Amino acid sequence: MLETEERRLTDWERRVEWPLTTLATLFLAVYAWQVLDDRATPGLHGALEAVLRLVWLLFALDYAVRFTLAVDKRRFVTGHLFDLLAVLLPMVRQLRVLRLVTVLKAISNRFSDRVRRRVGVHVAGVTVLVGACASLAVLDAERHHPGATITTFGDAAWWTLTTITTVGYGDRYPVTWEGRLVAALLMVGGIALIGVITGTIASWLVERLSGVEGSVAEAEQAALAELRQVRAELAALREELRRGAEPAPLRGEPRLKEERAGLQHRPGV
């Protein structure tokens, strides 16, 4: 029974994999449109907000279905606590920026297995995705607040770059608690991404150096084999010289000996 239920959960996740990825991409595109198009009419803004709410509702429905199919409910909740918080918290309007967390996690999970052998590609893609989401979120939170230093997408992108790399230039910074929440998440994520990137580069260097060392070792083995062969040939030649092996007679030498013998038997010679 347990295996059957877990199989149902796995089958559901497999079936909704690509639809959820499409919804996540749609959510990100609509959210970017809503944030960047500050001059949108109230009707357009309301339509975009309705699409965002619908997509978020579908993500919440997916979590509810997976929770229903899970056999061990407690294990499912503790193993997907981040998903639960990302679904529940955006119900508060002030935490609407956290909807991007659900989208980010959905896209990352859907594509991580396909590029697991190419860690560098996956890390680069996640870094770009995190940076774009953080820039949109902090701009959405800060733009219309009095005294805000992040009022354009360029400011938001610059702040994201300095924050995710842990540089902290300081010329741009969030002043709202929503923006600071985004900053805290980005700082933690930036440290993790830098650790993964550093580990990937170190692993690549070790692999390259191991390949060079292997090539050098193979060349040394080949040189030693040739040296052994030359030494064996020299030993064989030395053995022949030691035994006093006579050289092969020159061409025409037997005939010359016969002529000399004939001359010696002639009279008067």
TrEMBL record:
Pfam family for this entry, one: Ion_trans_2
Entry's transmembrane regions: 16-34, 46-65, 119-139, 181-206
Domain of life: Bacteria
Chain intervals for the UniProt region annotation (Disordered): 245-269
Record membrane topology: Multi-pass membrane protein
Domain Potassium channel: residue ranges: 149-206
Positions in coiled-coil regions: 217-244
SUPFAM superfamilies registered for this protein in UniProt: Voltage-gated potassium channels
Subcellular location per the Swiss-Prot or TrEMBL entry: Membrane
Major localisation: membrane
Gene Ontology CC terms, in alphabetical order: voltage-gated potassium channel complex
Keyword Cell membrane: no
InterPro entries for this protein: K_chnl_dom, VG_K_chnl, Volt_channel_dom_sf
One Gene Ontology biological process: action potential
Keyword line: Coiled coil, Ion channel, Ion transport, Membrane, Transmembrane, Transmembrane helix, Transport
Composition bias type Basic and acidic residues, residue spans: 252-262
MF terms (GO), sorted A to Z: voltage-gated potassium channel activity
Gene3D superfamilies for the chain: 1.10.287.70, 1.20.5.110, Voltage-gated potassium channels. Chain C
Annotated protein name in UniProt: Two pore domain potassium channel family protein
Organism whose genome encodes this protein: Saccharothrix syringae
